[in-house]
Design brief:
The protein is 45% helix and 8% strand. The radius of gyration is 20 Å and the shape is globular. It has one domain. A 4-stranded antiparallel beta sheet has the order 2-1-3-4, with helices on both faces. It contains 9 helices and 4 strands, in the order H-E-E-H-H-E-H-E-H-H-H-H-H. The protein has 276 residues and is α+β, with helices and mostly antiparallel strands. Helix 6 packs antiparallel against helix 7. It holds the Pfam family GIY-YIG. InterPro entries: GIY-YIG_endonuc, GIY-YIG_endonuc_sf. It comes from Nocardia puris.
Length: 276
């Protein structure tokens, strides 16, 4: 008589590095501030992702709860940025969040004016974090498909930043040969999305160029190391000449994207039931 094999738990199915990633993400999402509030439980806020070099790669905002939004990106992979291969989860080594606690419970239905004010401040916070990311980036550009709404700079609230990759996983993943191969694969997938969809935003093409620059620089670093030369200078990258302005969308781009977005499926729906 054959004994029935016990069904494994869903949490046991992922590969070891994925499980470790989710453990560290869960720990980050459960961090509390000095007032006992869970940082990621803020309804309104801004977040940013960083790669193995500490290079900012993506900035976003949410008014549905930070933890929900981050989970959609990093575990459920149900956001446009991930589904269209713009953001590669493999490259996300750190995350930072800026909660806006003062807008807890604010909804458009109950108080339209307060909601509009909160949204304006959220846009300011996102754009400020975005500008800071551009300034910190050696490439002077990140992977956002859509540039955040242009807003006045503001003072950023207190933030929490944490690592999502264990030391031994980092040792393996951050090897340049692995990163170069992975980044080339990401570019191929993103280009395939553009080809198969046909009508895609100008921002997607901009993200493709930025990824190509990231691949080129990483490959140039590797070559310089092999030949015993100094690393290439970031100043050798003329990003504005390649992609135009990364500080605001051009009016023609906005018009084109508005037409293209009409037929695209909404990949960013869901609720608090998203699971790690």
């Amino acid at each position: 008589m054959n004994s029935k094999q016990k069904t494994p738990k869903k949490s046991e199915l992922p590969a070891t590095d994925v499980r470790e990633f989710r453990v560290l993400l869960k720990e980050f999402l459960e961090e509390e501030d000095r007032q006992g509030r869970v940082w990621s439980s803020a309804q309104w806020g801004v977040y940013a992702f960083y790669d193995y070099d500490g290079e900012p790669i993506y900035v976003g905002q949410t008014n549905e709860r930070l933890r929900t939004r981050i989970r959609r990106h990093l575990t459920n992979q149900r956001t446009d940025a991930v589904a269209m291969r713009i953001l590669d989860i493999f490259e996300v080594a750190e995350v930072e969040i800026w909660p806006l606690w003062e807008y807890e419970g604010v909804t458009k239905k109950e108080d339209p004016e307060a909601f509009a004010a909160a949204q304006d401040h959220l846009n300011q916070t996102e754009y400020t974090a975005y500008l800071d990311a551009i300034k910190k980036s050696r490439y002077n550009a990140i992977l956002n498909e859509k540039i955040p709404p242009v807003s006045e700079r503001c003072s950023l609230p207190a933030s929490l930043r944490g690592k999502l990759i264990s030391d031994h996983v980092r040792t393996e993943r951050e090897h340049p040969d692995i990163r170069i191969a992975r980044r080339a694969e990401t570019i191929s997938r993103l280009a395939a999305v553009a080809r198969e969809r046909g009508e895609v935003s100008a921002g997607l093409w901009r993200a493709l160029v930025v990824q190509a620059v990231r691949l080129t620089y990483l490959s140039a670093q590797r070559l310089a190391y092999i030949e015993g030369r100094p690393e290439p200078k970031p100043s050798s990258i003329a990003m504005p000449d390649l992609v135009g302005s990364v500080l605001q969308e051009s009016s023609s781009t906005v018009d084109l994207d508005s037409e293209a977005d009409g037929d695209e499926p909404n990949l960013e729906t869901g609720g608090e039931n998203d699971q790690l």
